[in-house]
Amino acid sequence: MSSESDYNNYVTYGPNANCTLALCPASLSVYQYRPTLGGNIAFLVLFGLAMLIHIGMGLKWRTWFFVICMFWGCVDEMIGILYLGPQHARFRPKAYYWIFIPCDILSLILQAVGGALSSTSAGGSKNAVDVSIAGLSFQVFTLCVFIVLSLEYAFRWQKARRADANKKPVSRGFKVFVGFLSLSILLILIRCIYRIDELSDGYNGPLIHDEGLFIGLEGVMVLVAVYCLMIAHPGPVFAGLDDEKAIRDAGMPVESERQKEAM
Predict the structure, then answer these.
(1) What is the pLDDT of residues 33-55, one digit of tens each?
(2) Rg over CA atoms, the chain
(3) Checking phi first, is residue 196 left (phi over 0); if not, alpha (psi -120 to 50) or beta?
């Protein structure tokens, strides 16, 4: 039986990797296991199907920005702020775009840089892991801030709504939209927290070598979030946004000209 010392001349990870399954056991890899073929095929098919459906919905409803950025559920909530009434938000609606989208891009850049450094160092760089964790931690922080601001906005809107004698019931479609959007944000938050814990011990920790946890808390979380955003798609809910009658019929307040100028 071969021991790990028999493979000292092989590199298992990085740009100079020369250790293939034909030469080395999977236990010598960074993850210490060979990914399940069936599970990866299933994710490939389901994510591919989701991509096609989102493209189709984007073409139908002409929601170009959402199609490009649908991975970030916050964009839907920003549209919802405009829909319900910007006067209840802590900041101007456009501020949410300029704050949270750049924050998300920054967190993704940090994660990408960390991954690139890990590849070039054959997984041996602690700095690479630290950069990846910094990106994930920043993403969790901005998600939590966004959730708090969203909850505060919902509270202020509900309070103002109770005081409105002419209020109309909120449409069922909008309630479904908010529910599935909230679920998608929660799933992404869970995924990010898991990845932080996974990388907390670098590439030698127990979590990074557990394929079941990776499938459940990474692949499944993101996959379900993607499908939630099909139900929480802005097209069907906000199709009549420019139609004041449609907005009133849905039970939403119509913005005044002063509110529109404030955006």
Answers:
(1) 888 888 878 887 787 788 778 77
(2) 23
(3) alpha
- What the block records as the tokens of 262 is 């404030």
- Six token digits for residue 257: 């000209």
Q: How many residues does the chain have?
A: 263
What would the mean pLDDT of 88-106 be, rounded to a whole number? 82
Q: Which tokens hold the place of 203?
A: 């590439």
Task: Output the 3-class SS for 165-225.
Answer: CCCCCCCHHHHHHHHHHHHHHHHHHHHHHHHHHHHCCHHHCCHHHCHHHHHHHHHHHHHHH
Amino acid at 222: V
Tokens 């869970």 belong to which residue? 190
To the nearest 10°, report the CA torsion of 155, 158, 159, 161.
160
DSSP string, 75-95: HHHHHHHHHH-GGGSSS-HHH
Asked if residues 146 and 74 have their Cβ atoms less than 8 Å apart, the reply is yes
Over 60: is that where the pLDDT of 223 sits?
yes
pTM assigned to the model:
0.77
